[in-house]
Amino acid sequence: EEAHNLISVLEKRIDTLKKNENIKKLLEDIDKIKTDAEKPTTGSKPNPLPENKKKEVEGHEEKIKEIAKTIKFNIDSLFTDPLELEYYL
Q1: How many Å apart are CA 75 and CA 67, to the nearest integer?
Q2: How far apart are CA 68 and CA 72, in angstroms?
Q3: Helices marked H in 1-89
Q4: Domain residues of the chain, as ranges?
Q5: Each residue's pLDDT tens digit, 51-60
Q6: Which residues contact 83 (CB under 8 A, 6 or more apart)?
């Protein structure tokens, strides 16, 4: 039961983060960078991500982490027991 509640909290947090406009744009940019960089050339396997593209992706991921730190989560409704709520906070 406790593990199930924790999983619910984490799933809601992930959904909240994915719905954030700034994060959504950065995730789309990361996907585009990876897709464009990994397009296979004639008959070969997909190319690995070049170093400059890796750094660009890492920069976007850092921005996502910084934005995520500022987002407030409304998780009060998940718990009926105030002690249980405090345990997860």
Answers
A1: 18
A2: 9
A3: 2-19, 21-37, 51-70, 82-88
A4: 2-88
A5: 888 899 899 8
A6: none
Tokens of 84: 């249980």
Least confident of 16-20, 28-32, 61-65, 71-75: 71-75
Residue by residue, DSSP assigns 43-64 as TSPPPPPPHHHHHHHHHHHHHH
Cβ–Cβ < 8 Å for 38, 69: no
Q: Which structure tokens are listed for 53?
A: 């593209």
Tokens representing 75 are 């998780």
First to last CA, the chain: 17
How far is the C-alpha of 76 from the C-alpha of 52, rounded, in Å? 43
Q: Which residue has the tokens 């397009």?
A: 39
The CA–CA distances, whole Å, from 21 to 4, 18, 39, 72 equal 28, 8, 27, 15
